[in-house]
Amino acid sequence: MKRILILMSLVLSIAFSAQSQEKTQSREVGLFFHNLDAFGFRYKTGGENCKIRFTALFLSAGKQEITVKDSDLEPGGKKTGFGLGVGLELPVRYYD
């Protein structure tokens, strides 16, 4: 009876030890801003050493007005943009 109990406890401890050493993958979804005139949605997936970043939608807009005295010209412009992106994050640890 003692041998069976010891064997079962050994098997369970090995199973829990193997389970605790599995690599975990994280998944993140977020909204990001750049200079308050551009924003987008970002999805990240990966482990501790490497993450893949997908930017699903990136929108930007802006307006520029320049007035010149003594002239009829009023140069200026508007800009709009959108984009998709894929990136790779490789964090560098600078501490021990």
Automatic annotation (TrEMBL):
Keywords from the UniProt entry: Signal
Domain of life of the organism encoding this protein: Bacteria
Signal peptide: 1-20
Keyword Signal applies: yes
Protein name (database record): Outer membrane protein with beta-barrel domain
